[in-house]
Design brief:
Blueprint (H helix, E strand, L loop, with lengths): L1 H6 L3 H13 L19 H8 L4 H19 L4 H4 L2 H10 L3 H11 L5 H22 L19 H31 L4 H21 L4 E12 L8 H14 L8 E4 L12 H14 L2 E9 L6 E9 L2 E8 L13 H4 L2 H4 L16 E2 L5 E6 L6 H9 L4 E6 L9 H16 L3 E5 L5 E3 L16 E11 L3 H5 L2 H26 L22
Parallel strand pairs: 1-2, 2-3, 7-8, 8-9
Antiparallel strand pairs: 1-11, 3-4, 4-5, 6-7, 9-10
């Protein structure tokens, strides 16, 4: 241990180790999907920051670990953004610098059992604050939250229905803190073990108490995935392939057909021939078709990405314009300052325009559809709002074409399981090039997914459920709890500081005495 400490004495070596430690959680997400490592994936990072020799070094440990985490879970951006990926990781990684300081404050040295007990609340709360800040879509959204690694674990999905991905992430960080304390602070076994027992009890209670979605009927939903279509006239050829795959479903009883993001590359008003072809498909299949138009609109300036519902008579009028755009992919933040990113990668040459409100569409047979586009499925508040507004089924139309042969498609598809479990509503994740998947109202997968090598249409019997989950009813209450925990800690720290000032250390110089032997009074 002493030799390790000497080796870590180099600031550059320590920063590199912190970056690697921060990157460890990457393997808990798809494609590796080593979800069972999530309860200990943060332990190396926590142990490193705990042993920081100074507060400044703890800040650096938090920052470098955050850099490693962001870079690892977004490594698939490198072919598109090149060197700018490192800039983004460095900027976002700074959000974890205060978290590194909190680790040292609560676990550094020889902490008392009380301090360790407080760490089990304060450190997960601090982590949630980082996730809350980066949930702003201008910072890229909440991709790679710890809770997202548990998308295929039944008890975890039940917890998501109670407190969303926020509760999952809080408990996972708390478990990591408890394990780190057990390793580094043997005297803290009682509070650390108590923290693990409480986490197990909360999970068990959620499993037993949280209401289960009551399935009352099923609806046949088809996902059409054209596969990779590149080169000249790709928009026309992609439409043709989607049309052929949809026509192959004519013999099936389908109530809704979903195409992926950017499946139509032309405004349907400017191209009435395409609108007529879609209407004909709707008549032939007996189902309405939800397409996604990525084009310059004819009725207003700018390029929009829009979910458009088409029925047997053409577009129904139900339309949703994407609200949360991908930074650099669909617009460049502060383009006047950061426009140079377009010269080093595949950043958007022209900004897409934003929609202004979410929409619940009225489909055939009374089916209410809640559409989202691309990485909007990473935002739990958007799916919650659609469920509150009465959506029967959630739909995310995505592409991920740029990120084939990376972990991004599987990571993206897995998020739909969490959104379904949180809201108690089934979710359809339809893409151009895979992975396309469908999840029931409990977050369990329905049928088999379409992988990145598939060009096909697939029908899923999607269960519909009634009722409202605690998460939909209460919202992100774990975030509110985290804020309260941090506020209480801040007040306690303030009171402690005031007491230290009042009862300051004994003076180093003895008081001056007068000739009579009494201490001199001020002013005499």
């Amino acid at each position: 241990m002493k030799s390790l400490g000497l080796w870590l004495g180099s600031p550059w070596r320590r920063s590199a180790v912190a970056g690697v430690a921060g990157a460890v959680p990457m393997v808990t997400f798809p494609a590796p999907a080593l979800w069972w490592l999530a309860p200990v994936a943060l332990v190396p990072w926590i142990l490193l920051a705990r042993g920081a020799p100074t507060a400044r070094r703890a800040l650096y440990d938090g920052w470098c670990g955050g850099f490693g985490l962001v870079l690892a879970v977004h490594h698939w951006l490198l072919p598109s953004l090149h060197v700018f990926t490192f800039v983004i990781a460095a900027l976002l990684g700074a959000l974890w610098a205060p978290w590194g300081l909190l680790i040292r404050r609560f676990l550094g040295g020889s902490p008392s059992p009380g301090r360790v007990g407080a760490a089990l609340l304060v450190l997960p709360s601090g982590w949630l604050m980082v996730e809350l800040v980066r949930s702003w879509q201008g910072l890229g959204g909440p991709w790679g939250m710890p809770g997202a690694s548990q998308w295929q674990v039944g008890p975890a999905l039940r917890l998501a229905s109670v407190g969303g991905i926020w509760l999952l992430s809080f408990l996972l960080v708390a478990v990591n803190v408890a394990v780190a304390a057990l390793i580094a602070v043997p005297a803290s076994r009682v509070p650390a073990v108590a923290g693990l027992v409480v986490t197990a009890a909360v999970t068990s209670a959620a499993w037993a108490w949280a209401p289960r979605p009551e399935v009352d009927e099923r609806v046949a939903v088809a996902v059409v995935q054209p596969g990779i279509v590149a080169g000249a006239d790709s928009a026309d050829r992609r439409f043709d392939r989607g049309e052929r795959l949809t026509r192959a479903l004519v013999e099936r009883e389908v109530e809704l057909v979903v195409w992926g993001e950017s499946s139509v590359g032309f405004d349907l008003v400017d191209r009435p021939d395409l609108a007529r072809r879609l209407a004909a498909l709707s008549r032939e299949t007996g189902a309405e078709i939800l397409v996604n138009v990525d084009a310059r609109r004819s009725d207003r300036p700018g390029i929009y990405k829009s979910s458009v519902l088409v029925g047997p008579d053409g577009p129904t009028g139900d339309r949703y314009d994407k609200m949360r755009l991908v930074p650099f992919g669909e617009y460049v933040p502060a383009r006047a300052l950061l426009g140079w990113a377009t010269s080093v990668g595949k950043a958007a040459g022209e900004d897409r325009e934003r929609g202004t409100e979410q929409v619940v569409m009225e489909g055939g047979g009374g089916l209410r559809i809640g559409p989202m586009v691309c990485f909007e499925s990473a935002f739990p508040d958007m799916s919650r709002a659609l469920a509150e507004d009465g959506a029967d089924v959630l739909v995310a139309q995505s592409a991920t074409s740029t990120f084939q042969r990376t972990w991004a498609p599987e990571q993206h598809a897995s998020l739909a399981a969490l959104r379904a479990a949180e809201t108690g509503r089934p979710m359809v994740h339809a893409t151009l090039t895979g992975v396309s998947a469908v999840y029931g109202p409990d977050g369990a997968r329905v049928g088999s997914p379409l992988g990145t090598d598939a060009s096909a249409g697939r029908v899923h019997e999607v269960p519909l459920a009634d009722g409202v989950t605690p998460y939909v009813r209460l919202g992100a209450w774990p975030v509110t709890l985290a804020l309260l925990v941090l506020a209480c800690w801040a007040v306690a720290e303030g009171v402690r500081t005031v007491r230290l000032r009042r009862n300051g250390p004994e003076p180093l110089v003895p008081p001056v005495r007068t000739a009579r032997g009494w201490p001199a009074r001020p002013g005499r």
